[in-house]
Structure formats: C-alpha cells, structure tokens
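Q&A log
Question type: sequence-to-structure
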Amino acid sequence: MVRVVGPDGTQLGVMAISEALRTARDLNQDLVEVAPNSRPPVCRVMDYGKYRYEQSKREAKAKKRQHQTVVKEVKLRPKIERHDFEFKMRNARKFLEERDKVKVTMLFRGRELSHADIGYEILQDVIEFLADVANVEQKPSMEGRALTMLLSPRPAAMRAKEPQKSETEESGARTEGA
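Response status: OK
Response body:
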C-alpha cells in the first residue's frame, strides 16, 4: 500500500502498488517514490525524465553562480618606479574585485637583499593603496630572496564591482522624460 499524489499535487489516496502503477500508466507518466520512510510510503505520479532535466538545469544554474577563488601574483622589485607601481596596483585591484586572492612578491637580486627594509616599505604602500578592497591574509615575510604577502578581497569590494548607473546616465534619463 502506498499514498499516491497526482501530477498536479492532488491526493489520489492510499492504494496498492499495482493500482498506483496502473494509474500512472493511464496518465502516461511515471510513479516515483518521494517519501519512502513515511507510513504508508508516498509516491508521486510525474514525468521523471522532465523532472531530471529540470533538476540538472537548476544545478547548472547554481554552479554558474559559484566562483572558484584563484591566487593571482603581482611581482615587484625594490627599485620600481611610481608609474610601474601604480600600473601593477591597478591590476591587483582588478584581481581583487574579481574575487581572486593576490600574492604580492618583492624579488631581490644581489646586494638589494641587504636593503630588505625598502621592500617592506613598498609592501606597506601596497597595503595602503589597496586598503579599500583588500585584507592582509598573510603579512609580509621573507622566503629566500623574495618578500611575499597574501591579500584577500573584502566583501564590500565585491559588491562595488556590481554594475551601477552613473550620474550622467541618470541625468540623461531625466532630461529625455521632461
């Protein structure tokens, strides 16, 4: 004995399994068990192929909304010029707004290594430059001849990435309607 629910959600009552199968066959549908642990078990008359198709579409849509976090790297040198620094920081900002983490690496060559304090100052400038979009996940630390730190995106920075109307678009819309 099973409780049968029709394709439109109406209760068809409690009936024998053979009778439920016959009812489903008459409606050119499938009989699917939806609640096996209840007493009596609940079965639904539905088009199972259509149900599976819609379920896969929902899963694909949910997967499309997910974002895989990637670690992007920005390499700097102790003798970097201001324009080059700003250019690399614009790239780092773009990565952070796309919800990726950014690894900032300061590479030292030869005698530059004896002036690691310059590298720490430049990384401090990076932190200040990206303070509105990034959190410092791993503080600057020396790893061989490289000084590295890891930045992660702030949740507020991700919201700022969403498209918004500019003031010129809004004022243009107002003058057209007048």
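Response note: Residues 71-160 form a domain with the Translation Initiation Factor IF3 fold (CATH 3.30.110.10).
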